[in-house]
Design brief:
The complex is a heterodimer. Chain A is 63% helix and 1% strand. By secondary structure, chain A is mainly α. Chain A has a domain of 125 residues: Growth Hormone, Chain: A, CATH 1.20.1250.10. Chain B has three domains: 73 residues, Sandwich (Immunoglobulin-like); 84 residues, Sandwich (Immunoglobulin-like), CATH 2.60.40.10; 92 residues, Immunoglobulins (Immunoglobulin-like, Sandwich), CATH 2.60.40. The radius of gyration of chain B is 34 Å and the shape is elongated. By secondary structure, chain B is mainly beta. Chain B is 4% helix and 42% strand. The chains are: A mainly alpha, B mainly beta. Chains A and B meet through strand 1 and helix 4 of A and strand 15 of B. Strand 1 of chain A pairs antiparallel with strand 15 of chain B, so a sheet runs across the interface.
Amino acid sequence: MAAADSPSTALRRRDLCSRGIRLAGKMRADVVDLLDVYVEQQGLDASASVAAVEGVPLAAVERWDEQTGTQRLLENLAAYRAFRALLAQMLEEQREQLGEADAGLGRALAAVLLQVSAFTYHLEELLRLESRGIPGEEGDGPPPPPRLSLFEQKLRGLGVLRELAQWAVRSARDLRQLAKPGPATGTAPGLAESP
Amino acid sequence: VQYERVGADVTMKCGSMDWDAAVTWTVNGTDIDESRLNGSYLILKNVDLSQSGQYFCYEGSSWHLKYQTYLRVGTPPKEPVLMCRSNNYPKGFYCSWHLPTPTYIPNTFNISVIHGTKDMVCEKDAVPKNRCHIRYLQLFSTVKYKVTLTVTNALGKNFTTLTFDEFAIVKPDPPESVVAKPVPNNPRRLEVSWQNPSSWPDPESFPLKFFLRYRPLILDQWQHVELSDGTSHTITDAYAGKEYIIQVAAKDSDIGTWSDWSVAVHATPWTEEPKHLTTEAQITETTSASTSSFMAPPTTKICDKGAVVGSGAVAVCWTAGLVVAAYSVLFI
């Protein structure tokens, strides 16, 4: 059931959305910078095509404009929880491979991980605001993948960062849709119950 | 119709007539000189565009028509120029094309669009003819689009391919209805306002940011201001009395590239007395050191030639002199 839209709820939602939009923008800028560093330091070709990697949430979506607010929040939440786990794994792999030799890349990864965590929190708050139950995390993360070769790890990392950059753009758009005042119908683009 | 390349040698046979038959060839109703004939064959060496036309061959004595053809001289197509752009994101994008040089004969264009493994249909626009558009089926995809344009005519074919991702081709149309107005009682201000381009479908969810540039007509250097939201801006550092030229460009807040500059608008800041600007009545601008709000005397014609005191570079209209004196007294 959609919560009644009291003025304080609407204000809190708008506040969360606008802060989330700013965070998504900063996150995207940092991920784009990180991508440049990552490609260079991992010796990759920036234009290399990376096939969809298992466990990396794809930002691509059909009929984006028809999604309800709840769908947007839930898809975003699932994605950023997955990115949180993937980035933590990348950080661990960095440390194993390069130790202290690549502290800059490690720090940049850690900074993005922090932003992803903060954004996840924003999404959870928005869902709480709508009295939506927050899906548990147990089933969210991908099962531990089989041990990849060093090169496969690098390519997966490239895929993760690229997809995260796309998600950051999508999330800003999603939050703008959420922040729109919508009519109280089930198919409103704002926060409305999906039929 | 017979198509031949520019520079080719063309031999036309008069139908089933023997080589030694007496014939007359005409082109566009004019007899062709016999020196161009080899027996009954018409020989055209190194054809050029001017030799395109309707050719007839008549039997010598009876003037029976034995052969006719429409000769069109042209060239095979060079590599076409292809451009794709989304000015209505997130609805879709369009591609447009042209040939760098004309072929002078009919061409057909075929365009294919692939997104990953999926073929997409690019619907041809009625106007202009060399354009087609595609609706996005997916948004926020990292998979690139590959567009191939093939051009074919009777003398050959050529093609070109563009590969791009969804964000890279986003380029709005320029802002519309740019208006610049003076601000009453503010000699250094100009109020500029504009509207989102009408082709941009959802500025609320996909807001645009703007870039404004302005300069006085008498200077070459532009001032720039980037604005992250809003469709208006007040210029506060205009030179008093100088006519300004102002333009605005737009970009999606997150992705893509800047639009072309809008149509330029002109405006002059408010001056104390609304007069026409004239280049002859330049009065040296003076400022008071005691205040930054001192209004420099406007470069407007405020006196008749007969009221001018002095001559050359220091000629000062006595009325203007009074004004300057009055202001100086005020602010000392």
